[in-house]
Amino acid sequence: LSDPSVPPSGVSCSGCGAEMQCGDSGAPGFVPAEKYRSLLSEGPAGLRGAVCQRCWALAHHGSALRLRLPPDEYRRVVSAALRRPPRHGRGPLLLYVLDVTELPDPVLPQLPALLAPDVPAAGVLVVGNKVDLLPADSRGHLGRLRQRLAAACALAGLRGDALVDIRLVSAKTGYGMEGLISRLQRSWKCAGDVYLLGATNSGKSTLFNTLLCSDYCKSRAPDIIDRATVSPWPGTTLNLLKFPIINPTCDRIFRRQERLKEEAAKTEDQLSSEEKKYLNQLKKEGYLVGRVGRTFQQQKSNAEIDFDPDMLSYSIDEDPKDIPKKHEEREEFTHNEVKDARWCFDTPGIVKEDCVLNLLTEKEVKLVLPSRAIVPRTFILKPGMVLFLAALGRIDYLEGEKSAWFSVLASNLLPVHVTTLSDADTIYEKHAGQEFLKVPMGGEERMKEFPPLVPQDITLKGIGTTEAVADIKLSSAGWVAVTAPAEEELLLRAYTPKGTALVVREPPLLPYISTIRGARIPGTPAYRTKKPPSFVENLRTTG
């Protein structure tokens, strides 16, 4: 229950950065009044290190409490932070994080508006995140991805001195992270503050957590600063969280390089059993894997980077009887440690408009957003056939002379169904909201409030049987790469829920993806799936 008579605490939630309060259950930082008073009674350290009800629900149940925080408020918080007077005589470096599977990034064109003339930013370093989710469709696929990012930046007006660099990483599996840290320490050093910007679900909070537990952060900070809440629900980080950046002195850079050389000389057989177990788990989750270590503090374990609710939260319903009250023993920075510190800030995610995720419940979002390496699913369709991606997208092959290949890249949990044009409407009416199409879920009642699918006609001309001509991106539900014989003209009709964006992506993100398939399954339009092997960077291969 809320109690509007109790003033806000002035203490930030350690999960999302919102000010802790018990006056409004629909606002950020809410803690039930009884729990709030109990924590306050323990003195100034009582609330420090605790999390709000929303972060608790996200961490324990994957559910997000609805909050009254419109998109304009997100932009206001970020814009106000960037307009702060420059500290240390230099404006901040902006780390813009985008999800490479979401190209073209819907928020990137908004970046110049945030960087108005009165924003003293020193430049933008673009971080293409979640590369671990994408299978390699050919040699050099990462170089091609980087070129696509560079083109998107140029289109958004980011070029020249304004664009510091473009890096491809996976904040979750660690791929590319040591390279990103070296790049930051080499070029930016400790010249000013750093702000993480990006759309919701771009992986900013995961990146923040990974940097917090790396050589980029002051060595004592991970023991003092809590990690950002990591969750698939849009807009998890509600205010500004920060950690102090370590000063990369010549001695520190030398010691770090020695550690990286030593680790790169190891083979997988030379790793400890704990490291092997952790690495094997990451290989299951992503195609590209890296190891993020620490030079200046002995690593306790290779624990997963994700938010640890047992360490940072409490139960809403009962007192934490079995959990030691770590907030009473929390370390604090000394004045000398932070008086001249440069900080890395995590900011609220900028909400993507026209996005299908905005229409979904938290359970549905968890099914739609890929959390593991995407396994491509390829189908061969004749004119008059229809492909459904759950009940969130549909592609009709209306006209063409020959068969064409349709490769689906989406969460492995979303079902794909192929049927005929004559049966498609009946299948959608009968199965939308049911287990057969899976998302949305909730039956007839759910579908009454869910927007109808609206069509868009698309004409494509094939360029060969091994190279896709375009991707049909079904908002944030995934995309379908279309491959057809050279000069073959196709008339397609694609559907997404009303109010969401359907994008024809040319050239496609993974043009040769239809070749990553097994044998045709007899009597069906489907091919057996084929999952490429994972690659671990900075680890010597044997044989």
From TrEMBL:
<dbReference type="GO" id="GO:0005525">
    <property type="term" value="F:GTP binding"/>
</dbReference>
<dbReference type="InterPro" id="IPR052807">
    <property type="entry name" value="Mito_transl_resp_regulator"/>
</dbReference>
<dbReference type="Pfam" id="PF01926">
    <property type="entry name" value="MMR_HSR1"/>
</dbReference>
<dbReference type="InterPro" id="IPR048422">
    <property type="entry name" value="NOA1/YqeH-like_C"/>
</dbReference>
<keyword id="KW-0175">Coiled coil</keyword>
<protein>
    <submittedName>
        <fullName>NOA1 protein</fullName>
    </submittedName>
</protein>
<dbReference type="InterPro" id="IPR027417">
    <property type="entry name" value="P-loop_NTPase"/>
</dbReference>
<feature type="domain" description="G">
    <location>
        <begin position="194"/>
        <end position="244"/>
    </location>
</feature>
<dbReference type="InterPro" id="IPR006073">
    <property type="entry name" value="GTP-bd"/>
</dbReference>
<feature type="coiled-coil region">
    <location>
        <begin position="250"/>
        <end position="277"/>
    </location>
</feature>
<feature type="domain" description="NOA1/YqeH-like C-terminal">
    <location>
        <begin position="406"/>
        <end position="506"/>
    </location>
</feature>
<dbReference type="Pfam" id="PF21516">
    <property type="entry name" value="YqeH-like_C"/>
</dbReference>
